[in-house]
Design brief:
There is one protein chain. The protein is built from eleven helices and 13 strands. The chain has about 300 residues and is α/β, with parallel strands linked by helices. It has a single domain, classed as Alpha-Beta Complex (Spore Coat Polysaccharide Biosynthesis Protein SpsA, Chain A), CATH 3.90.550. A hairpin with a 2-residue loop joins β2 and β3. The protein is globular, with a radius of gyration of 20 Å. The structure holds uridine 5'-triphosphate. Uridine 5'-triphosphate binds next to α5.
Amino acid sequence: MKQRVTKAVFPVAGLGTRFLPATKSVPKEIMTLVDQPLIQYAIDEARAAGIEEFIFVTARGKSALEDYFDHSPELEARLAEDGKDKLLEVLKSTYMPSGAIAYIRQHQALGLGHAVWCARNLIGDEPFAVILPDDVIAAEKPCLQQMVEAHRETGGCMVAAMEVPNERTSSYGVLDVEPGSGNAMKVRGMVEKPKPADAPSNLAVIGRYILSPEVMKHLDSGEKGAGGEIQLTDAIAKEIEGPRGVYGYRFAGERYDCGSKAGFLQATVAFGLAREELRDEFSQYLQEMMAFRSAAQ
Ligand code: UTP
């Protein structure tokens, strides 16, 4: 079995109901963080990690997402003609080599596990990454790259993990890990969306995974889990007893939940302030805004 991770699955077939009415016509993954759609952050992270094949699991109403990856000769010609070299560079940095992107349809939103399973024939018998584009991670070394490097040592399955407040465990897959130090923690149990009282810890799984092809086989059963959905967590949990096991990877970086409104706004502030050309004006505005608010209270 090939060990190098060169394929990534991007499940983008969810309904995005938390962003209605915008998501009536705009796929959540095309929504803009500063000046890039969420999907571009995910693609850049995957490329940095050595991914060469990008598999999108899409659904009805997501054509804007597919169009985003088309080349745009007219725009290119206009920018060249106008001497806008910097913008031309930005445009070209979004181009993907021909044949590097594949689209698969998930005909019904039956859950994340089902979405990943839809890509099984393109994955074959090799380890693969899964990236959820609505988890945006700001990190010096991109999160998936950190995980690919750690996975070279561990093999098996690996999920990105971070601590969350106890009362938030019911929004995540939660890990029970063996005690010990190090960033790659051996998992001995995982449960999807437990109530705080039932959660084995406050170590939550977030949207980056490196999975063995056996996980696809576990998904074949179509077994439903929490919320009546086919859960990816349940299929990964079946690998805990497998020969290579499952690891929770404590990544270095800041994760923003851009699938929620509050998370998206926080990411907008953080990524806006991180941009040199915006920082001064934007931080001055934020300070004035805060001063105004506290004076009004
Ligand atoms: P979410 O739980 O955020 O669901 O899915 P959602 O539909 O995108 O958004 P809300 O909750 O209705 O606002 C997490 C990830 O799994 C994908 C989503 O596209 C998202 O990237 N997903 C989820 C699928 O591709 N298919 C599914 O059936 C479910």
